[in-house]
Design brief:
By secondary structure, this protein is of the alpha+beta class. The chain folds into 2 domains: 1-38, N-terminal domain of TfIIb; 40-136, GMP Synthetase, Chain A, domain 3 (2-Layer Sandwich), CATH 3.30.300.20. 31% of the residues lie in helices and 36% in strands. The chain has 3 helices and 6 strands. The chain has helices at residues 40-62, 102-116, 118-123; strands at 3-9, 12-17, 22-25, 66-78, 86-98, 128-136. The protein has a 3-stranded antiparallel beta sheet, with no helix packed on it. Strands 4-5-6 form a 3-stranded mixed beta sheet, with helices on one face. The radius of gyration is 17 Å and the shape is elongated. The protein starts with a strand and ends in a 7-residue tail after the last strand.
């Protein structure tokens, strides 16, 4: 896996992944940024949510569960001093589907957290990771 970050100006960068995707990364105004893109640690948190969501969807599909939607909301607390690593991450899984088996959903989330999600397993070295699971009514649209 490869990635690069090219400095634009101030504290703005264009980050490019080995798969050829790019995103503008910038800092807050108080750090000299212009708010042109997400902060680097926001990308780490968003990547973590996406990593575990990927696993959960994949596991549920393999278990032949009729999943129709999966949203993982992530909230993190950081250390007050540098390096401001994540100290706590809470993941809220909102899963939808027809006739989902609650035990299968819980199993998928735990397998992601304990075995498959590289991001959560890596971040667990500095952060306490907690989670909750909500199986939501598929007839009500997600916000």
């Amino acid at each position: 896996m490869k990635a690069s970050a090219k400095w634009i100006d101030g504290v703005s960068f264009v980050a490019e992944t080995g798969s050829g995707h790019a995103v503008v990364v910038d800092g807050a105004a108080e750090a000299g940024g212009r708010n042109l893109g997400p902060r680097p640690m926001e990308l780490v948190l968003a990547g973590t949510a996406a990593c575990t969501a990927f696993d959960v969807v994949w596991i549920l599909k393999k278990a032949r569960q009729a999943i129709t939607d999966c949203v993982v909301d992530a909230e993190a607390k950081r250390a007050p001093e540098d390096p401001k690593v994540f100290t706590h991450i809470h993941l809220r899984y909102r899963i939808r589907g027809q006739g989902l088996n609650e035990a299968q959903v819980e199993r998928a989330v735990k397998l992601s957290k304990e075995k498959y999600c590289s991001a959560t397993l890596m971040l667990a070295k500095t952060a306490k990771i907690t989670f909750e699971v909500a199986i939501e009514d598929p007839s009500i649209p997600l916000p």
